[in-house]
Amino acid sequence: MNEMQTLLKLLHLENEVQDLKKATLDKVVVHSDNSFVFFISSSKIAPLEEIRILFSAKNEYPYSCDFIFDWMSSYTPDDVLEYALFIFNGFFLSSLLYNFYWK
Q: What is residue 13's DSSP assignment?
C-alpha cells in the first residue's frame, strides 16, 4: 500500500474516492503545533467532488491537517484556468437555476 492509500485509509476514504487513489503523497510537513500539511501531486486533476470529500474528512485525522495539491507539473496555466472557469461557470449556472426555480 502506498502513502496516499494509507492516508485515505486513515481518513476512512478508501471506498469513497477513485482518482485520489492514483495521486502521490509527495511530502508531509509537521509543524511545531503538531499540525500536518500533506503535499499531493497527480498526473490529472481529481474531480471536484473527490476534493470536497477529502477536505470534509480532515476531522478524521487525529491532528489538524491541510492539503496542498500540485497539478501544475502536468498542466499548463491555461489548462488550470480553463478547469477553474468550468467549475465557476457551473456554480454560476446552478445558482441562476436555483434562484429562478426556487425563489
A: -
